[in-house]
Design a protein that fits this description.
- By secondary structure, the protein is an all-alpha fold.
- It has one domain: Up-down Bundle (Ferritin).
- It has 7 helices and no strands.
- α3 packs antiparallel against α4, α3 runs parallel beside α5 and α6 runs antiparallel to α7.
- The radius of gyration is 31 Å and the shape is elongated.
- It starts with a helix and ends with a helix.
């Protein structure tokens, strides 16, 4: 009888231990669980950063030069477009400025998205030449602003189109080439509209 009772206690104790082990296994919260979770969270990030840095390292001089110029040019176009909406006197100049600010703003965001993916740092300020143009335009208002703005938009977009065509045809980075090719029709439309406004000022 005594042996039977001891046997029952032993079986009960064994079942209790097995139950605790099962609960621990089900929750997955063992001593290494936290470390495993942390590793799985950080590995994709590390891998993404490495990939991005590798992409940036493979950009050639033309890609970098184009990206920098496009970023600064786009920023300037938005600044001048906003100025045209406030300093311009004719409806055509105000409308042209609004279109420039909107379209170049969208292109700027697309370029920033490419830079993030490629791990490339774009300039966040204008160079001295472009900043001087913005400062000079800020000092003008009315008809004088209208003439200068329309003329500047024609000249700038002629240069932009040449640079974007070059990148679209001979750039190294496929995504940047795609951006250049996609943006070209918009730039050509801008030039056409700017020429119309400039002609109306004579």
């Amino acid at each position: 009888m005594k042996n039977s009772i001891l046997t029952i206690f032993a079986v009960a104790a064994l079942m209790s231990c097995n139950k605790k082990e099962t609960q621990t296994t089900d929750t997955g919260m063992d001593s290494s669980g936290t470390e495993m979770t942390n590793d799985s969270m950080t590995t994709p990030t590390d891998s993404t950063m490495t990939s991005a840095n590798t992409n940036a390292a493979t950009l050639n001089d033309q890609d970098k030069k184009f990206a920098d110029a496009a970023a600064m040019g786009g920023m300037m176009e938005v600044m001048l477009g906003d100025l045209a909406k406030t300093n311009g006197s004719s409806a055509s100049v105000k409308s042209l400025g609004a279109m420039m600010a909107k379209d170049h703003g969208m292109a700027n965001e697309e370029l920033k998205s490419w830079a993030t993916t490629a791990g490339y740092t774009l300039p966040t300020a204008l160079d001295a030449e472009k900043q001087k143009m913005v400062d000079d335009m800020k000092a003008l208002k009315g008809a004088e602003f209208d003439k200068m703005y329309a003329s500047a938009m024609v000249t700038d977009h002629q240069k932009d189109i040449a640079e974007f065509k070059k990148q679209a045809s001979s750039g190294m980075d496929a995504s940047l080439k795609g951006f250049a090719g996609k943006t070209l029709p918009t730039l050509e439309h801008h030039l056409m509209e700017a020429e119309k406004v400039k002609a109306s000022m004579k």
